[in-house]
Design brief:
One of its GO terms (cellular component) is cytosol. The protein has helices at residues 3-8, 103-116, 121-137, 151-164, 188-202, 223-236, 248-257, 266-269, 290-298, 307-312, 320-326, 344-361, 371-383, 416-426; strands at residues 24-35, 38-50, 53-58, 69-80, 82-88, 140-146, 167-171, 173-174, 209-211, 214-215, 240-244, 280-284, 302-305, 330-332, 400-403, 432-437, 440-441. By secondary structure, it is α/β, with parallel strands linked by helices. α3 packs parallel to α4 (151-164), α4 runs parallel beside α5 and α5 packs parallel to α6 (223-236). The structure holds guanine and fe (iii) ion.
Length: 444
């Protein structure tokens, strides 16, 4: 690579295709996590991609890479892409509305009627086109997405997500009890038959998108449905996503619905859908018992911490530092439309803010999250559900986003970590000027 080549490739003007097969470098101020406590900064550094895989970060271009294409993003920040461990695609249109309700009333009066609209494939296509475009324009490069119970709509969502180039797990939702007729599968048999039909149509069909089993939450699924989903899970080797211990009334309801279970977590665990050989994400985990914490640790169940949603639905404040200290894998989720922003960057600030409130008002033994810890959860922590994702350490998938802060004029110079922090708290999609997923440039 010659320097003149690097300078002729100005980010945001020309861009490049980021050919997945050949090596290239991005140049800029690079920040990435190596662990919850290690946020590494390399000013004016090079992050190198070969065949979609990160080859590491260097202050100078190493000899063996001289001559490769280099995109010089100059003063901009380059960070790993965000992982959204928990988002509901059908809820995207009404995010930021009806924020005065708690979970169960919100589900019944707002969410279930809205999700029922996705039985109409034309509506689903229109709505999911908007969702997919917005995901493409944001900083998320990996996502775990809930669809609805409808097979056709969920396939449309998967087709549209595939076109974005973003890595995603997408789930057809299972729900055969405790919701109105307009949004309830007729029986466990029909729920399983539709799920099988959906899996037959989607397993192995996409490059970036994979199916994930998605029992909505225990109140929506009969025991028989859970039992039979576990059979499908083994047959198709599927991961699982669901909700756990989000809201106090919900937890009480699960106690009444499943008196024989050892607790809410056990309503999944007793069917083998709670970690171990079954990669699992449980959203929220605001009120876990000691027993549940121990099982989640042992079985490495991922927590999708959704701070903004937990605030919007008045759910509570999850003890995230405890989970990190226990070694439970934790990532961040937007939980749109429980949460109002689809940006995981926003969740970093909210995770920190909520942890401060918990520390001040609830439990002085758990210190607030640091920026390094919250950034880790948004990138490497959640990314681990997808494999080696969410860092610029060698061997990780080359997922990068490039952020400019030129719209924040300053009377003095900030160090890179303060610049990142300000982008987290004040930035939006307009600050995003480059995005790569597995080494391929995503057109913004
Ligand atoms: N629990 C069951 N369904 C949902 C949902 O759609 N959103 C949230 N936040 N919690 C749920
Ligand atoms: Fe949710």
């Amino acid at each position: 690579m010659s320097d003149s080549h690097a300078q002729s490739q100005h980010a945001g003007t020309k861009g490049h295709e980021g050919q997945a097969d050949s090596a290239f470098a991005l140049k800029g101020t690079i920040l990435y996590s190596e662990s919850p406590h290690q946020l590494t900064v390399v000013k004016d550094g090079y992050v190198i991609c070969r065949q979609g895989i990160c080859q590491g970060v260097y202050p100078c271009l190493p000899k063996q890479y001289q001559g490769i294409l280099c995109v010089d993003y100059q003063d901009a920040l380059i960070i790993p892409g965000m992982t959204d461990l928990h988002i509901h695609a059908p809820q995207f249109p009404y995010r930021g509305t009806s924020m005065d309700l708690e979970l169960l009333e919100w589900l019944n009066t707002v969410t279930f009627p809205q999700e029922a609209k996705y039985r109409d494939a034309d509506y689903a296509r229109r709505a999911y086109q908007i969702f997919a475009q917005e995901m493409k324009k944001g900083a998320t490069t990996s996502a775990c997405i809930f669809g609805t119970m409808h097979v056709e709509a969920t396939e449309i969502l998967m087709d549209l997500m595939e076109e974005t180039g973003i890595r995603a797990y997408v789930g057809k939702v299972n729900m055969d009890r405790n919701s109105p007729d307009i949004l309830r599968e007729e029986s466990w048999e029909s729920s399983i038959a539709h799920t099988r039909q959906w899996l037959e149509g989607t397993v192995g069909r996409y490059r970036h998108v994979k199916p994930i089993l998605t029992p909505r939450f225990t109140p929506s699924c009969t025991d028989k449905l859970m039992e039979q989903l576990a059979v499908l899970r083994k047959e198709y080797h599927l991961p699982v996503q669901s909700h756990l211990s989000e809201n106090l009334s919900e937890i009480q309801w699960v106690r009444e619905l499943c008196p024989d279970a050892e607790g809410y977590g056990d309503t999944y665990d007793r069917y083998g859908m709670f970690g171990g050989s079954c990669p699992t994400i449980m959203a929220h985990c605001v009120y876990l018992t000691e027993k549940e914490i121990a099982r989640m640790k042992e079985q490495q169940v991922f927590v999708a911490h959704c701070p903004e949603s937990n605030m919007d639905l008045s759910s509570g404040i999850a003890p995230v530092r405890r989970y990190l200290e226990e070694g439970i894998p934790v990532g961040l989720g937007t939980d749109v439309a429980g949460g109002h922003h689809s940006s995981v960057l926003h969740q970093i600030g909210d995770a920190i803010g909520m942890s401060k409130l918990r520390w001040r008002l609830v439990d002085q033994s758990l210190k607030p999250l640091t920026l390094s810890e919250a950034f880790y959860m948004a990138t490497m922590g959640g990314g681990a559900f997808f494999g080696k994702v969410g860092s610029f350490l060698p061997g990780y998938a080359f997922d990068a986003v490039v952020l400019t802060d030129q719209n924040f004029p300053r009377p003095y110079e900030f160090d890179p970590i303060r610049r990142l922090e300000q982008l987290i708290y004040l930035g939006d999609d307009r600050n995003l000027i480059g995005k790569y997923c597995s080494g391929k440039q995503i057109r913004l």
